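Batch job 17 of 40 flagged for manual review because the log was empty.
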Amino acid sequence: MTPFARKKQQLYLVLSGIFIVNALLAEIIGVKIFSVEKTFGLSGDLTAGVLIWPVVFITTDIINEYFGKEGVLRISYLTVGLIAYAFVVIYGSTKLVPADFWLDINKTDAQGRPFNIEFAYQSIFRQGLGIIIGSITAFLIGQVLDASVFQFLRRRTSNRFIWLRATGSTLISQLVDSFVVLFVAFYLFGNWSFDQVLHVAGFNYGYKFAVAILLTPVLYLAHYLIDRYLGQEDSVELQQEATADVSV
């Protein structure tokens, strides 16, 4: 294996690892809706998972930059499979009969109030089963849209304006993702009203919109570090392959 091929493989492996772990974590913690006002002093409500989604879509753009649409879709399909596997395992764990001593030592909370830990466990993780359907649907639509818009803008700008193709593709894909995931998870499979879906989805998207713009310098920093790691000549070659959608 040539030094270039080895660096290329290692780069894709690292970026894929960052992508997968953050996507999986976002899906798992996404069952919690928290008050932004009570937490940060700003009005609105967000899903906990949305806090780390910026890492996912920044990584998506970096992968797209160096490995093209094929590279993004390959890792996206793998991630969907891993998320589905994780939730199958989690669902299986909810079917296990709890040990008596575990229920007994956790029968009260820190204030001494009655507490049913098995009920809490079931409530949290079984709620995630409804979310997973919406999440996978929205994730796939969002990733395909992001990868396609990114490459469209890249061709239209002759490989210039990194900020435009990265931010533009993110803003379009996350507009769809933000509404689809909540509509499917909490309206079709949950007990939310449509107004609640619109309210939370709108605020989620506003957060993603703001963060996508704020993280633009991070994208340029990542581009700079990767170019130094690969070397300018190899970096240009890899980006040319990405534009032509050459496989990893």
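Reviewer: the log was empty due to a logging misconfiguration, but the result itself is present. DSSP finds nine helices and two strands in the chain. Unflagging and moving on to job 18.
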